[in-house]
Amino acid sequence: MNKMRIFKFLILGVIIFLFKISDIQAQVNLPLADNIGEWSEPQERFIALENSPRIKVRSKVIKHFGTTGIIEVEITNLSEKTLSSTFGLKTPRGDLNDNKIHINNSYQLSKLKPNYVVTYKMELRECLPKGRGKMNDLEKCIACQPRLLFIY
Q: How far, in Å, CA of 45 to CA of 50, rounded?
């Protein structure tokens, strides 16, 4: 009886460990340009693990007001399969591995065919960097280190 309980806890620990690994790998640093209103250089990434779909991401900071940055994000599907995923912008505040996206700030990447491009106007919420009074809109967004979190 005691060996069975230990075995169950061991299996549970392995499952939790695997979920933690996939959470970390599902995050993509968002490339930002040097100026407001300009597109960043595109970066190719995997959504999660190396055998997951490949995407090309670039972004354009539109403005920042209060605690919210408005960023346009362009995603190109570079894989050979149709891509569907839920994703959102996230800042490194708090636990990066919590795999949570606020429902009002989540987006559905639905049936994006290979080599197709889609653009989303997204909100970077809770972006409140220290020293923000002396920063312009772009510097505020850069200081918040935005990341795309894919739930794949």
A: 9
Q: What is the mean pLDDT of each run of 10 residues along the chain (152 residues)?
A: 70 56 58 91 84 90 89 94 86 62 76 93 86 87 86 74
- Complete edge-to-edge strand list for the sheet that includes strand 54-65: 43-46, 54-65, 68-77, 117-124
DSSP structural state of residue 24 = H
- H or E segment to which residue 105 belongs: none
> How many angstroms separate the CA atoms of 48 and 44, rounded?
12
Closest CA to 105 of 125, 85, 126, 132: 125
Nearest to 99 by CA among 16, 11, 9: 16
The alpha carbon torsion through 94, 96, 97, 102 (nearest 10 deg) reads 80
- Answer yes or no: pTM beyond 0.70: yes
Residue 131: strand, helix, or coil: coil
Closest CA to 57 of 148, 133, 135, 129: 148
Which residues 6+ apart lie within 8 Å of 110 measured at CB? Answer: 84
Phi, psi of 65 (to 5 degrees): -145, 140
